[in-house]
Fold this sequence. Notes:
The protein is an alpha+beta fold. It has a single domain (3-110), classed as 3-Layer(aba) Sandwich (Trna Endonuclease, Chain: A, domain 1), CATH 3.40.1350. 40% of the residues lie in helices and 21% in strands. The strands form two sheets. A three-stranded mixed beta sheet has the order 3-4-5. Strands 1-2 form a two-stranded antiparallel sheet.
Amino acid sequence: xxxxxxxxxxxxxxxxxxxxxxxxxxxxxxxxxxxxxxxxxxxxxxxxxxxxxxxxxxxxxxxxxxxxxxxxxxxxxxxxxxxxxxxxxxxxxxxxxxxxxxxxxxxxxxxx
Length: 112
C-alpha cells in the first residue's frame, strides 16, 4: 500500500472516531474534539477543556491490517499530555472499530 493511501486510511478512521465521540456528547462541537493531521506528534484526537471532562482519555488511532496492540498502547501512553487514560481505537479493512483500554479502568468506570 502506498504511504499516501495508508495515511488517508488513518485520517479517515481518526475522523470517524471524532465523529463517534461528537455524536455521543451533548453540547460539544468540532472545535472541542479535533482530529490531528497525519504525521503530527502527540495525540491523534485533541480535546478542549470541556471535552476532557466528558472524555478523560489520551487517544491513539490505528487503521492497520496487522497491529501490534502493545506498541499502539505504549504510543498512547507516551503521547499522554497529562494524567489521562490511554485508549486505542483500531480497525482493519472490512471490520468494526474496536477499543483497547486498561481492564481495571473499564471495570471501575463501568460501575459509575
